[in-house]
Amino acid sequence: MKRGVDDLALFGGHAEFDQTLLVGRPSTGDRTKLYERLDRALDNGRLTGGGMLVREFEDRIAHMAGTRHCIAVCNATAALEVIIRAQNLHGEIIIPSMTFIATAHAVRYMGATPVFADIDPVTGTIDPDHVETLITPHTTAIIGVHLWGQPCDVDRLADIAHRHNLTLVYDAAHGIGCSHGPTPIGGFGHAEVFSFNATKVVNSFEGGAIVTNDDDFALRVRQAHNFGFIAPGLIGGLGTNAKMSEASGAMGLTSLDVFDEVVAHNKAGYDLYRDLLAGLPGLTVHAYDPRHRNNFQYVVVKVDQDHAGLHRDVLLDVLRAENVYALMYFSPACHQLEPYRSEHPVTLPHTERLAEQVIALPTGPATTSSDIHRVCEIVRFAIEHSAEIAAQWQDNQPETAEQLVSSHGEA
Ligand SMILES: Cc1ncc(COP(=O)(O)O)c(C=O)c1O
Predict the structure, then answer these.
(1) Are strands 358-361 and 299-303 parallel, antiparallel or unpaired?
(2) CA-CA distance, 177 to 155, in Å (whole number)?
(3) Which end of the chain is more exposed for a tag (fewer CB within 10 A), N or C?
(4) TM spans, by residue (predicted)?
(5) Does residue 399 surpass a pLDDT of 70?
(6) What distance in angstroms lies between residue 89's CA and the mean position of ligand 1's atoms?
(7) pLDDT over 70 for what percent of the chain?
(8) Cβ contacts of 405-411, under 8 Å, gap ≥ 24
(9) Ligand 1 neighbour 297 (Cβ under 6 A)
(10) In the prediction, which pLDDT does 116 show?
């Protein structure tokens, strides 16, 4: 309980949490089951390359996503790269800038140019109207991102891709178990990509999956993710090694076993955050459209400095000093980062506004309701004492503060 601003850890007080509270503590499930699965893989000696655990994992992901095909991969970034190469996507690929840098880097790493589109200011997902204005004769694809598990405007994007004969792929790194209306994320566009990185709601240590209903696409991608092999001894073309290992399959299956419980836990945490932070000036907990299913792996808060009285960065510093490791998902936006900002400077007003305001708060299986109460108390205290905190913060970090004040003044 903070009585005054000097009790904040940022200004020399005692940190609220002894151990760091993270945004995405891994969802590991039942360890006994994990060890049983690992034992089975070790016993049968097949540790990668089409083992039974990865096959089972692929079947379960395809079932959840409602797709005919699932190819498990070593991570979502490699999955995007495999798709770009296997589909020979070159020239310009339109993507949102409000995403993790992996989306942009995958495009660029494969030799294509990411062209950044602005977002819908309400959902934060790619704006189809802006996408359409960015299409040139060099455009070969659109990669939408289902930000925080919210579906893109899949109907509009499908129409645009169809009219311009473009490949349409979704980065669904956040999207496992989410939907567009009643339809699960997974079957939209030519293919979609999930991430099962340790911080995600389904965790396979590192991992991802490509899901699609297109038989040819699936075949090409399956070959490309395994050195181009069509069959043992037979290579159909170029490929890389993006396979998922059996150890990751074991973790992924064990994490999937508790998926429903984890989502229920996250939803309860999300509701609690919304209740406890309601009514604070300048602070909004991002609302998910109830027409679509969400997995609630992200509790995103937006800080509007004009009304909150302090900048997002100040609140972030306050929280981190208390050992609440909140994250900026995603800030800066991709077009504000190198190499993109030097090479192709662009202005994306909605993206820049959101990137300046977002904070993702701790959630996941290891975050208790007591943790959430304590985090919200700190946030409430910070907003209620915003003027004093902002002034003291500015005194401590004069240069950064000046930059923030001036950039805000220009906006
Ligand atoms: C939107 C988005 N795309 C891609 C990735 C990359 O996923 P991975 O870590 O599995 O490569 C992430 C990871 O967090 C992400 O958030």
Answers:
(1) antiparallel
(2) 19
(3) N
(4) none
(5) no
(6) 20
(7) 97
(8) 408/305, 408/311, 411/353, 411/356
(9) no
(10) 98
What class is the 31-257 domain?
Answer: alpha beta
Q: Is 103 in the pocket of ligand 1 (CB under 6 A)?
A: yes
Q: Are 172 and 94 in contact (CB under 8 A)?
A: no
Q: Is the CB of 81 under 6 A from ligand 1?
A: no
Distance 146 CA to ligand 1 centre (A): 11
Which of 77, 205, 298 gets mutated to test ligand 1 (max ligand atoms within 8 A of its CB)? 77
Are 99 and 125 a contacting pair, CB within 8 Å? no
- CB 351 near ligand 1, within 6 Å: no
- Closest-lying ligand 1 atom to the alpha carbon of residue 197: 10
pLDDT greater than 60 at residue 70: yes
Range in 22-36, 169-183, 313-327, 353-367 with the lowest mean pLDDT: 22-36
Give me the pLDDT at residue 336, please. Answer: 98
What Rg value do the Cα atoms of the chain yield, rounded? 22
Q: Is 77 in the pocket of ligand 1 (CB under 6 A)?
A: yes
Element (H, E) at 184: strand 183-184
**Residue range 106-134: average pLDDT?**
98
Q: For the purposes of burial, counting CB atoms within 10 Å of the CB of 45, is it exposed (0-12), middle (13-18) or buried (19 or more)?
A: exposed
| CA of 79, closest atom in ligand 1 | 11
357 CB under 6 A from ligand 1? no
Q: Is 327 in the pocket of ligand 1 (CB under 6 A)?
A: no
State the chain's mean pLDDT as an integer. Answer: 94
Confidence of residue 220 (pLDDT cuts 50, 70, 90): very high
Task: Please give the CATH topology (third level) of the domain spanning 5-24+258-326+362-401.
Answer: Aspartate Aminotransferase, domain 1 (3.90.1150)
Q: Is 75 in the pocket of ligand 1 (CB under 6 A)?
A: yes
Q: How far apart are CA 49 and CA 244, in angstroms?
A: 8
Ligand 1 centre distance from Cα of residue 78 (Å): 10
Where are the domain boundaries for CATH 3.90.1150.10 in the chain?
A: 5-24+258-326+362-401
Average pLDDT, integer, range 316-341:
96
